[in-house]
Amino acid sequence: MTEEARIKRWRLILGQESEDRFSQMGGGLALSPDELAMDSALAAIYGGDGDLGSGGRGAGRGPSSPKLAKWLGDLRRLFDQEIVAVVQNDAVERRGLKQLLLEPELLENLEPDLNLASTLLALKDQIPKHSKESARAFIAKIVADINKLLDSDIRRAVTAALNKRAHSPLPSAAAIDYKWTISRNLKHYSPQLKAIVPERVYFYDRSSRTNRWHVILDIDQSGSMGESIIYSSIMACILASMSAVRTNVVAFDTQIMDLTQLCQDPVDLLFGFQMGGGTDIAKSIAYCQEFVETPSKTLFFLISDLEEGGNRAGLLRRLEELKDAGVTVITLLAIADGGRPCYDETTAQRIAAMGIPCFACTPEKLPLLLERALKGQELMSLAKEFQRKK
Questions:
Q1: Full domain range(s) for residue 99
Q2: Residue 130 to residue 353: CA distance in whole angstroms
Q3: Any alpha helices (H) in 123-265, and if so which ranges?
Q4: How many CB atoms sit inside 10 A of residue 264's CB?
Q5: Across residues 315-341, what is the average pLDDT?
Q6: Which of 73, 134, 138, 249 has the fewest CB atoms inside 10 Å of its own CB, making it the most exposed?
Q7: SS3 at position 329
Q8: Cα 65 to Cα 42, 68, 132, 201, 222, distances in angstroms
Q9: How many domains, in total, are found in the chain?
Q10: 144 is a domain residue
């Protein structure tokens, strides 16, 4: 980087107020048209004479949609995606520009971002009718990106853990295991018929389908849980689409909502959450205990920041009851800001002391965790390993 470029960068960092001092450093340091546009776009949020106004000062005083739309366009043209996402979030948090999330023409220009998606979900009851489809489309972009990250790995993890399903000698066309039958009979391919003539056809044992693993996701929907709710919802929908497992999804604050019926569509599921409010984790665990039919085939995820507003002793007792009954119990701790753990450390330590693993991990590690849990492998050491790599 040249000395001139370095000085210009400092000028952009320090803002328009430093213009006079930099101009005294001599010629050749004037900002280009694009650099001036950058300066204006940043000043609108971080101070100076930006042209968005401060917003949030009452009726008629906030920035207009055309100005915001132009500002968003300049932002996306001048900066890379990571910087755009940071500035968009700061626009909402520092300038109170919730208008960004409530107008369709603005939503369409926003760079998909987890923090903004969390804020949008928290504001969903305030979204005007004419913006609802744009809001869903914005959330759908986030869902699609995360789904690409998790879908194949979660399916592989479940398949790897449960691929020892017994085969039955009783024939039934509806129960044919085509993949296994073909792979076991490849040597019987007939060039004349251009087809495989199977020596033996394999059938799934229908009784194994009634003994499926049952996954229960108990998800804290308090205000700090935005990112975790998004990841958990997508994981829930992937699992719900697999016949190898049965899935229940429960959301809680001080009240309990059973969202299992919304698992066909992750966007529908996300809009089913009511973010905000208090927290009564013990009450929600008690509700989920009613779902347990075969403890040895039940995997219970508590997804929370563990900021218990109800009975903390009751929370610990309920978790211990599940564990003692034979349920595989796992705590997934809340994450924020792209993977930073955010939780009550004291409660997490007490849960871990009971032999229940607490995972503060990024979503990419969920498939490995899920596979080991379904295989019945020890998880405490894995939780410690994730903690070391944090």
A1: 3-137
A2: 51
A3: 132-162, 178-184, 206-209, 226-240
A4: 10
A5: 91
A6: 73
A7: strand
A8: 18, 5, 17, 65, 31
A9: 3
A10: no
